[in-house]
Write a structure and sequence with these properties.
By secondary structure, the protein is mainly alpha-helical. The protein has 2 domains: 351 residues, no CATH class; 119 residues, no CATH class. Helix content is 59%, strand content 5%. The protein has 20 helices and 4 strands. Strand 1, helix 18 and strand 2 form a beta-alpha-beta unit. The radius of gyration is 23 Å and the shape is globular.
């Protein structure tokens, strides 16, 4: 096969994996509902700032709102059956699949420019087929910012190689600025890209030209809070976001649950890069891991920004093994090892992504809509609340169930969609506990994810699809003292 067609291999694989079952797998996660709700608010009001919480910048909801507007979303006359409700997530999930495919293309191009065709093909194929890739299908800011980050890195690489193309520096800066404007932790990649830019002529002017858009674009976020006279609130919320605490060992544990093979070969590649002093790999990996270890941005999907470099580092190590291990100098043995990893990864991914683990979420939502009482407050996660409010115009639907901690319930009756995320948040405050204890179960929905033995790989991935494990619909009276 001609080298110029090699890129089709990872792109075809990525297209299949990310578009074969966009809504059925993975289940719809709490945060996805938040970003959909904010996108709908952007469409309705034209304002990217929803309510008074400053947790993330605006570019994520701006992009989502733009995609929804272009596709004339939502279409009129949405039905209340589970299939129709499930399809409300189809367009945004397909968009996320396309973003993942674009990211696969950019991983190939970056690896090709830095390390050659062989590393490019293997790293982009790992990125396309290994089980961790399904996380990119969730509507998450980390996935949305990834193409902007990768484009910034790719343009910086071209800038360092190409004479007379000064425009590449500010455009690279714009791309990283937009990544940061999507989610603040992207700023930790400034050392990597600025190092790439500085390599060319070793002039501070190049870095200045590059960094101006990197700084100016994200400033739009606090600037908007100043316009709204909420800058003190912005500072308070940003500090709160940075002080959330989880153990770095916890997200390593999640990685091992989702994709132990990629974790092992990726970390082996990082160690190998450290031993061989591969600055490109280390500048990408080390600052972000240091950030994850020190600051409270510690969810399993925060690995997304360093997933590409783990695939690249793993590929470098795997392809260099024959130089270090004499038993692997046989091309046949070496090829069998690499092919086995890819086949195992693809097979493991296929076994999980072809399952519909979100359907019961929409069965539960359908039941609530069809049995909704006019004078009842519905407490639900954002997965459901934006649909209830924005699509069906149902009143008395807070942004999410935690609003009961801050605002009084104005109706006597309460309906609670008690999913696993709701149960996990029982320790957040007495009124969330009260909303559960003062209501009774009227309908229970068990999801397909619970049918699998989560102790057996690759079905350990179902542990990260727990929003669809079970959903308890509860009804009762809310009597304030």
């Amino acid at each position: 096969m001609k080298k110029k067609f090699l890129i089709l291999i990872p792109l075809v694989l990525a297209s299949f994996i990310h578009l074969v079952n966009p809504v059925g797998f993975p289940d719809v996660f709490f945060d996805e509902g938040i970003y959909m709700r904010r996108a709908m608010n952007m469409i309705d009001t034209g304002n990217p700032q929803e309510s008074y919480l400053y947790d993330h910048p605006y570019f994520g909801q701006i992009i989502l709102a733009g995609v929804l507007q272009i596709t004339d979303y939502p279409h009129n006359g949405t039905l209340t059956d589970p299939e129709s409700l499930q399809n409300l997530y189809l367009i945004p999930r397909i968009f996320m699949g396309l973003v993942a495919i674009l990211s696969t293309f950019l991983v190939y191009q970056i690896a090709k420019e830095k390390f050659g065709n062989n590393v490019a093909l293997l790293s982009s194929t790992l990125f396309a087929v290994m089980p961790y890739t399904w996380i990119l299908d969730r509507i998450l800011l980390d996935s949305i910012l990834l193409p902007f980050l990768l484009t910034s890195i790719l343009l910086a690489i071209h800038f360092a190689k190409s004479p007379g193309r000064m425009w590449l520096a500010p455009v690279s800066g714009m791309m990283l600025g937009l990544a940061i404007f999507t989610k603040i932790p992207a700023f930790v990649f400034i050392p990597l890209v600025i190092w790439l830019i500085f390599q060319k002529r070793k002039k501070f002017l190049d870095m200045l030209i590059w960094i101006i858009p990197v700084l100016l674009i994200p400033i739009l976020w606090p600037a908007n809070s100043l316009v709204l006279d909420q800058f003190d609130m912005w500072i308070q919320d940003v500090l709160w976001q940075s002080q959330r605490s989880n153990s770095i060992l916890e997200i390593i544990g999640y990685f091992l649950v989702i994709d132990p093979v990629l974790f092992v070969i990726g970390m082996a590649g990082i160690i190998y890069s450290a031993l061989t002093r591969n600055k490109f790999v280390l500048f990408w990996f080390v600052p972000f891991m240091a950030f994850l270890s020190l600051i409270g941005f510690k969810q399993y999907f925060h690995w997304i920004s360093i997933l590409p470099i783990m695939c690249i580092a793993a590929s470098i190590w795997l392809l260099d093994m024959p130089k270090k291990i004499k038993y692997l100098q046989s091309k046949t043995i070496h090829s069998v090892i690499i092919t086995s990893i890819l086949v195992f990864g693809f097979s493991s991914t296929l076994l999980i992504i072809t399952n519909d683990v979100s359907y019961n979420q929409f069965e539960a939502l359908s039941y609530v809509i069809e049995n909704q009482q006019e004078q009842s407050t519905i407490l639900a996660s954002p997965v459901y609340s934006w649909i209830l409010y924005d699509i069906f115009d149902i009143e008395n639907v807070p942004l999410d169930y935690s609003m009961v901690l801050f605002y009084p319930i104005e109706t006597q009756n309460v309906t609670v969609i008690a999913d696993p995320h709701f149960m996990l948040d029982q320790n957040r405050g007495e009124d969330i506990v009260k909303s559960y204890n003062t209501t009774e179960s009227v309908k229970f929905f068990e999801g397909r994810a619970s049918e699998f033995d989560t102790q057996i790989y690759p079905y350990t991935n179902m542990k990260v699809n727990q929003e669809g494990f079970f959903i308890d619909i509860r009804e009762g009276q809310w009597d304030d003292p």
